[in-house]
């Protein structure tokens, strides 16, 4: 029988790719940044009369996230890393697919005396276009998940991650240029 620990070990093993890094996406930096920004804690900070009280409250909250709240932060960090890796991979696949699709449309289907079948070319183009749009929608969903996880941690993503939105829009425009 599978245990919770087995499942957690599987998650850790599957998400342990250290080739994907984002500056500041580490547990201690996230917790230090998060503690003073969580709206639910604002009234507690507002009640502090002295810097010492604020420092004590901050330490208590940091301790909470290092213990009972650790799994929430760790899970969101994993979610961001895995999503970022999938977005980068997906963008690359879509770019390559778009190039291949355009090339296949431009290259004649028949060389020699036989005539190409325009209906076949049109059908193939439509299938490839729909496949690329489906891939693009999937990558967009993963990017949305990444952004939402970052927002929950109050983690400011690097500009390069936000720039992917523009890349996806450019890819969508390119895909939509395929006439079917």
Integer tally of domains = 1
Major sheet attributes? none
Rg measurement, Å: 24 Å
Structural class: mainly alpha
Specify the number of helices.
7
What is the end-to-end distance?
52 Å
Describe this structure in words.
By secondary structure, the protein is an all-alpha fold. It has one domain (21-176). It is built from 7 helices and no strands. It is elongated, with a radius of gyration of 24 Å. It starts with a helix and ends with a helix. The mean pLDDT is 90.
Q: What is the compact description of this entry?
A:
This protein has 180 residues and is mainly alpha-helical. It contains seven helices and no strands. It has helices spanning 4-14, 27-35, 42-47, 51-66, 70-106, 118-152, 159-176.
For the structure shown, list the relevant keywords.
single chain, about 180 residues, mainly alpha, 7 helices, about 75% helix
Q: How is the secondary structure organized here?
A:
Elements: H1 4-14, H2 27-35, H3 42-47, H4 51-66, H5 70-106, H6 118-152, H7 159-176
Helix pairs in contact: 5-6, 5-7, 6-7
């Amino acid at each position: 029988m599978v245990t919770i620990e087995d499942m957690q070990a599987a998650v850790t093993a599957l998400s342990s790719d250290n080739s994907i890094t984002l500056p500041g996406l580490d547990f201690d930096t996230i917790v230090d940044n998060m503690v003073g920004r969580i709206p639910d804690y604002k009234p507690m900070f507002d009640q502090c009369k002295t810097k010492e009280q604020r420092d004590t409250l901050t330490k208590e909250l940091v301790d909470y996230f290092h213990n009972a709240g650790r799994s929430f932060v760790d899970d969101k960090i994993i979610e961001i890393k895995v999503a970022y890796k999938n977005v980068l991979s997906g963008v690359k696949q879509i770019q390559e697919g778009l190039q291949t699709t355009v090339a296949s449309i431009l290259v004649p289907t028949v060389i020699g005396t036989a005539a190409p079948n325009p209906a076949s070319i049109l059908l193939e183009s439509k299938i490839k276009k729909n496949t690329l749009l489906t891939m693009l929608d999937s990558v967009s969903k993963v990017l949305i998940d990444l952004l939402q996880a970052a927002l929950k941690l109050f983690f400011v993503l690097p500009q390069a991650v936000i720039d992917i939105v523009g890349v996806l829009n450019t890819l969508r425009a390119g895909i939509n240029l395929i006439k079917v």
